[in-house]
Amino acid sequence: MSEKKKSYLTGKEIRAIAKENAKIIKRLEAYKNRKAEEAEFLTQMHDDANILEIDDLHTFFFTEQGVVKAVNGVSYSVPKNAVVGVVGESGCGKSVTSMSVMRLIQGPAGQIVDGSIRFKSHEYKRDAKGEPVKDENGNYEMEDKVYDIAKMPISEIHRIRGKQVAMIFQEPMTSLNPVFTIGQQLDEVTFIHTPGATKEMAKAKSEEMLRLVGIIPENVYNAFPHELSGGMRQRVMIAMALAAEPRLIIADEPTTALDVTIQAQILDLLQDIKNKIDGSILLITHDLGVIAEMADFVVVMYAGKVIEQGTVYEIFQNPMHPYTVGLQKSKPTMTLDDGVELYNIPGNVPNPINMPDHCYFKERCAKCTAKCSGEYPGMIQVSPTHYVACHLYNEEDSNNG
Ligand SMILES: Nc1ncnc2c1ncn2[C@@H]1O[C@H](COP(=O)(O)OP(=O)(O)O)[C@@H](O)[C@H]1O
Ligand code: SF4
Ligand SMILES: [Mg+2]
Predict the structure, then answer these.
(1) Of 24, 39, 222, 227, which is most buried with the most CB atoms under 10 A?
(2) How many whole angstroms from 91 Cα to the centroid of ligand 1?
(3) How does pLDDT run across 362-379, given as a tens digit for each residue?
């Protein structure tokens, strides 16, 4: 008798899952909260041209229903002074990847379970007591270090979070403190990150950053967040991110909560900033139009995995994965005739708790062949910068059958 596939869990199964989850969480929480010598989380970049290397990252949520493999073996890099765009439908793991880089995954349910996040930091040199060191001319000395962020105890994250890596969120109101003025919050960034900063230095820096994002400081420095429009608040958030002079800015759907005209202004601003700062931008969006305008490199994610990546030219001129092709077809364009319906990729992302063993896109793919029921496709290199995970391009597969 064939067993019917059931869509619910019994009480016994739920208890078994909870017990297994608790065991794993306990081990990972202890690892996060451990005391560790710096040597334990120092490492080397695999390619010196990069500032960030995410390598086989696994970030899971241990829920009552089972394990949500939100990020399931993701690897991609951000080169120095480049904009890398990460794109994919909602729920494919874009934000969980970037929150992992910031170590903002909410435990105990959410945990980084495996992989590396190598980040090249440029920071104040410190002595054994943690005090910044000056050179003979009285200037603070700087040094480069490579951290594996995934292996850092949570108590060490202050070394990079907000300073070396800054984040611009979708909803700026949630990240600005309503009881302090914009000036106070901006000044604070300088106080935290610059040794020896005075009130005057901090204010001058804050005003410079406001001007950089197109705001007249006099109008905004003494204002409270609720007195500003959404677009202005997003500009302030960008100013705050810039004030720390980070090497990497993560912008997660930075324009999604804004109306269309303001979106365009903020994108122009990011474009402008990209040329002015000595740093890289990781731009996360479900909008391919934004990527086309801003990015140098593109990473396409689907269901917790990277399925294609390449230069912006490669991804737009020669998209290879059927999912990337589908995303491009579903992108609205100015040339679309009235009445032509926008293409939608049929079907849904599979249930993240029960991912199949084969290609996760199979159930939605019009190109699928017999071998697509086999193992999950490996990443195939098609140019020095272009990679795709799809059986259509596996020569070995086609030679053999
Ligand atoms: N706190 C959480 N608990 C359980 N699942 C979560 C949690 N946060 C995110 N997820 C799941 O992780 C997956 C990836 O989410 P996310 O990275 O936010 O997607 P997006 O690509 O839209 O940014 C989704 O399936 C989402 O439901
Ligand atoms: S591996 Fe097969 S099912 Fe998956 S995207 Fe490629 S052709 Fe489609
Ligand atoms: Mg997201």
Answers:
(1) 24
(2) 5
(3) 999 999 999 999 999 999
